[in-house]
UniProtKB/TrEMBL annotation:
InterPro entries documented for this protein: Glyco_trans_1
Protein name according to UniProt: Glycosyl transferase family 1 domain-containing protein
Record-linked PANTHER family: BLL3647 PROTEIN (PTHR12526:SF636), GLYCOSYLTRANSFERASE (PTHR12526)
GO MF terms, alphabetically ordered: glycosyltransferase activity
Species per Swiss-Prot/TrEMBL record: Marinobacter salsuginis
One GO BP annotation of this record: carbohydrate derivative metabolic process
Domain (Glycosyl transferase family): residue spans on this chain: 46-206
Length: 244
């Protein structure tokens, strides 16, 4: 269908680069409009959230299927079982049962919770302290934007367009795909550093406000349509030219 389109919108520069390399379209035809999510009541962030908590609540929102690497996350967490954290997985999918079995094998049964599909993920995010998304590949995941909206620092695999949302060292920390050791060190760093979590969460919320709201996405998308319609309108026959 690419040959029939005036413009093609991609959700990340990463996807746009793939399309260009695959000769899907030209530089002029391919336009990036990052995903955006509607704003909700923002999480109340204050200085006291920088204080140490009895348990740091980690959360990952993703289906249990091939692109997501919950297995690597569980293995990394098993090396940090001495730290004060609990992990919540939101989502279902074909690999859910095997991940439950792995949790028991790793001795994490009292620290990891599987919540299944949830009707109000935003509420789960508001209760959390740290968002984690360990994936083998991504485009520009909405769950990361929802976590930033909730004022959460993000730990994520540096794949796809993730780095276009998460600024490494500022709004969260990025780890290489399959990097178990890097993931262990990163989780340890943020679990044990409440002030850094707070600062990254505030920076993430600010970045969401400026770049990833639904309204920003809507306006950029409308601009693409207006540009296309403007060009097509200028190419129309003048009114005095009839069709015979």
């Amino acid at each position: 269908m690419a040959g029939l389109c005036s413009k093609i919108i991609t959700v990340s520069n990463y996807d746009r680069a793939i399309a260009l390399d695959s000769n899907v379209g030209s530089e002029e035809k391919l336009v990036t409009v990052h995903n955006g999510v509607p704003d909700l009541d923002s999480r109340s962030l204050s200085e006291d959230e920088g204080e140490a908590k009895e348990l740091v609540r980690l959360i990952m929102v993703a289906r249990f299927e091939e692109p997501k690497d919950q297995k690597l996350l569980l293995e990394a967490l098993s090396e940090l079982s001495h730290l004060p954290w609990v992990m919540e997985f939101v989502g279902d999918g074909p690999k859910l049962e095997s991940m439950k079995e792995l949790t028991v094998e790793l001795g994490l049964g009292d620290k990891v919770y599987f919540l299944g599909s949830q009707g109000n993920v935003a509420a789960n995010l508001r209760r959390a302290d740290l968002f984690v998304l360990i994936s083998r590949w991504e485009g520009l995941p909405l769950t990361i934007l929802e976590a930033m909206r909730a004022g959460l620092p993000v730990v994520a695999s540096n794949v796809g367009g993730v780095s276009e949302a998460v600024i490494d060292g500022e709004t969260g920390l990025l780890v290489p795909r399959d990097g178990k050791g890097d993931l262990e060190r990163t989780l340890c760093r943020l679990v044990t550093n409440p002030q850094e979590r707070l600062e990254m969460g505030l920076a993430g919320r600010s970045r969401y406000d400026s770049e990833f709201t639904f309204e920003a996405m809507r306006q950029k998308t409308l601009m693409v349509y207006r540009d296309v319609l403007s060009v097509e309108s200028s190419n129309e026959l003048p009114p005095e030219v009839g069709i015979r």
